[in-house]
Amino acid sequence: MSTATTAAWTPPQTSVRLPSAAVAAGLRAGDAWRCLRTACAPFREGTRFQALPDVRFWGDGARQRAPGARLPGVGDRTATVYRARLQAAGLSSFALRVDEPLLADAPLWQAARALLSDAFGANRAPVLRVSAALTLCSGVERPPWTWRAGHARLVAVLQGRLRIGGEVGDVSAGDAAWLPARMAVPQDPGALLLVLSIAADPATIRSATRVAAEDLLLRLLERRRPDPGTVAMLPSPPAIDGACGVATIPALRALAQALAAAPLHATLAEAVALDAALRTSSLGLTPRPPQAPAPLRDGARLRLCAQGIVRQRLDDARWLFAVNGHPLIADDRAGWRRLWARLCEGGAWRVDALAGRGRDAAALRAWLVALHALGGLCADDAG
Questions:
Q1: Domain 16-202 in CATH 2.40.128
Q2: Domain residue extents for the chain
Q3: Which pLDDT value is given to residue 182?
């Protein structure tokens, strides 16, 4: 759990091999393959548009919009079995890419976050969102897709190997590698890769940061000034602004006044700080959907999972907890301070011991349920 400001991350300028990094983070080929297969399941029934995870398949030298049974199914227990099935069906070459597969698999999401944490180092986080993809190719010399320009890649080799050459050589299964923005991601036949793309080029970061700030500003304006459902246009007859001597559009003039208002600037600064805390807690990964909140038994024992939590004060009465990319508010009261102090001591605690029996017991229990659903609390196996 962190309250510190993150330090700047220096993108890699050359390829760097990270021995056993994928294994240490808990990334395993079997888990990744099940995640990929789950993401492909709805696409076997037809094409989905504007949906995440997104699946793309190339076969016979062309992209197939509705590959159907050519995608992995329940019977394909491993990537090797899947490749053998396609080859037996006469498909000698194919390429499969699943974007944002981690949204469908909470344990794999946590393992990818652990890999990012180890690769970035202490108190470092990406400036912008990190995109994730699982890829598998067979019989193709070069993958048919492109990667976003200006982005470095953190590649975990889950099966097969990654041939980089030079001093780095081959990256084996269980290892990971940093690839600089200017370098393409090689793909050996049969290699199952998890590719995490992080903005690294200064021009790319500046442009994307500006777009993100503009989007945040627009969302704040929409909350303050809901869309009236009309088109901003000159009135008839046009009104003349005495100061400027020109006709003005009232809706646009009101918008300009709202943009210049000091309260909006203060709100924007708070929103930027909140966005930074949320992004730091997930290390840039798109937040996975939280699990449905479930009641906690009095005797259930919980411990703090501090890696994905960033805490900062909102005001004199409230704390913001950014938990794996999701916000959670805590009222700064005596009962909550006692609960939080116990969790920070370490070890596992019974739910009834944390919530207590005072006036705030129900509210504290509800807060524990929410924190557990977001992945900030872990059940103690020994309990």
A1: no
A2: 16-202, 301-379
A3: 86
